[in-house]
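Protocol step 4 of 5: obtain the predicted structure for the target chain.
Materials: sequence only (see below). No template structures provided, no constraints applied. The aim of this step is simply to have a reference model before the mutagenesis design in step 5. Sequence pasted as it appears in the construct record:
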Amino acid sequence: MDPFLAFKIGATGLRIQRLRMDIISSNLANIDTTRTPQGGPYRRKDLVVAAVPVLKPVQTGEFGDILQAKLSQSLKAAVPVAVVSDPRPFKVVYDPSHPDADKNGYVRLPNINPIEEMVNMISALRAYEANVAAINNAKAMIQKAIEIGR
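Step 4 output (structure tokens):
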């Protein structure tokens, strides 16, 4: 079994959580942006991570060999991720003095909820920490295995 497979899995998790944090920070930075190059207010973004499909089990061979083969196959390609726009409607507030107000004095604001973004940020932080802990545990196990071999 590949001793560095745990590092590859952990690194993939770290990369995904870093991307998630980048998107969350972008959402928070644009919480009051009412004019974008595409026109209209900023639309909240979110990260969608695709699950790695489970392959059909092999009927012959040792369990460890089968597990190693399946994990290696599933990690050959990067985990697919996509940044999608949130389809929820924009917030509309009455502010006739705002430069982007319509003829009735209403302004469309981004569909960003700061509380939701902070919860997502804490979740991404905890997932990032869990991946770091998994990498550290794998490193400690490899070090112990080397010590046993001496």
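Step 4 remarks: The chain has one domain: 5-31+45-85+112-149. Strands lie at 45-49, 81-85, 91-94, 106-109.
Proceed to step 5.
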